Amino acid sequence: MPTGFGRLWTAQTVSSLGDGVSHAALPLIALTLTRDPMALAVVTAAGTLPWLLFGVLGGALVDRWDRRRTMWLADTARAVLLAIPAAAAALDVLSIPLLAAVAFLLGLGGLFFDTAATAYLPDLLRRDPALLERANSRLRGAQTAMSGFAGPPAGSALLALGRAVPLLADAVSFALSALLVRTLPAMPRPVPEVRDSLLQQARAGASYVFRDRLLLGLALRPAVGNVAFLAVETVLALFAYDRLGIDTYGFGLLLTAEATGGLLGAGIASYLGRQLGTGTALTCTAAVEGLAILSLAAAANPFVAGLALAVCGAGMGATMVLGPSLRQAIVPAHLMGRVASTSRMLAMCAAPIGAFLGGWLATTYDIRTPLYAAAVLLLAMTAITASMTSNRRVEAALRAAAPADAPDHPAHKGPAQETAPNVL
Q1: Domains in the chain: how many in total?
Q2: SUPFAM superfamilies, per this entry (predicted)?
């Protein structure tokens, strides 16, 4: 791995720890201001709005800008931004509108940082598929460990010292991340499409995803998956209390089981890709997720439910390493920001649909119904996208994306070995 990756890994690990702190602390801080569920929902939803409103445009901007500079400026801005609610908390003038505004701007900064990081990594690793899988496995594992395990309890503990403390801790994490990213090696900027407006460039990026069957399949999986997983998440706590008979501590253990599975899945993703082929591995992990949710729906006790969530988490962890790694290896550098942001935007837009679906099914039918519906949706999505992300398509896309002087490039093979462009 290039030496610069260690600094990028450390930066994202530190930032993920801060994210975990604020993920636990922000809702609790909001609870000190109001008990109105709608007001709390506004704070939560504000963080996702930037992806819905500016996802594709943000990707187009990232493809125009220097990716490293975009990352460290975004983290610097988020560090400064968090000082505002921290000062307001210290002065006892904190309010729900201020928290919602901060959540929105933090989400906007996250949009630019995440998109730029996704586009920067392939350049740093020379678009090597094996290195990309290893890198994404480490990044995903660190993110899960920090934001899923270490961050939330730290956030709760810091909140006991004062409402401003966890906010300041998150600000420090962003500042440290910005300093580390600033030391990363500079990469050549993509050749700009000077003739096109920003809207035209954004449209070209979205069109690139929808016209390519492999990229479309990679984008559909998290989008449909978010519908299913949010339907489950919406009723999971109620399902655990009413049907499994567990308490608050037990529910925390259920979530820990899922996060533990996610770490395992991220760790074995590269092995699965080598043994099965990336396309088959993606189909298998998607099927595992669907079968695991089906087992959760039928679970009669907390132990079966915990095992099902751990298996589901493993499938999700592996998918979230293999899918992005493949996308980073095959998408041209000048389109990487737009393709990544388009895929992420589809996933974010699908989340509210899943939450509404889960609540409606539970209210209209039974608390287990959203879980069964989510399992059916995941298995149907697996069947539909299996041919779109097959090993044959993956190998063809990797050959087409290889440098012209690479020995496995189509230009070095006979006519019978060349493959047609992978478009609809």
Answers
A1: 2
A2: MFS general substrate transporter (SSF103473)
